[in-house]
């Protein structure tokens, strides 16, 4: 923007200097100027040049201010909603219409340790811990708290009590069939 603004000023100043020099050069005979309906002033080509340069500067300013936002929105659209969501295992897509199409299936990571259920629920029947610092009792409390809130399929934040530490911890949960909850003191809980 500074470069284009400077260029515009240089071009405009050069044009003005040439015109002033032509009018005040003592060694030259004054040349009669054609009558202008506006009573003198800069020629039309100079206004066109200034208009083109102004549009170019405005376009560059728009590109500089709006371009990064558009690029960021495009990156966000390609990025998954929650980077801690469990991986989705799906068979390769087929182009053969005779074969049935299978939906992607979310699966627990191989490092997850399932917990014995403390209560029954038909929607999410189990929980698992994802780190060594997460207790199985806390995982079941996270499952209970996740089921008590009404949001499904969207990222939510819940608060769960730890039976081991006696403290309350905030957990961020997201996912569809396997919900991954992270937070607390490096706790990871899977609700499925």
Flag low-confidence runs: 82-94, 99-104
Biggest pleated sheet: 6 strands, antiparallel
H and E string: HHEEEEHEEEE
Q: Count every helix, treating DSSP H or I runs of 4 or more residues as helices.
A: 3
Radius of gyration: 34 Å
Which terms summarize this structure?
single chain, 192 residues, alpha+beta, 6-stranded antiparallel β-sheet, 3 helices, 8 strands, 17% strand
Could you walk me through the main structural features you see in this protein, from its secondary elements to its overall organization?
It is built from 3 helices and 8 strands. It has helices at residues 2-24, 44-78, 136-148, and strands at residues 88-89, 105-106, 113-115, 127-129, 156-161, 168-174, 179-183, 187-191. Strand 6 (168-174) and strand 7 form a beta hairpin.
What would you say about this model in short?
With about 190 residues, this protein is of the alpha+beta class. The protein has 3 helices and 8 strands.
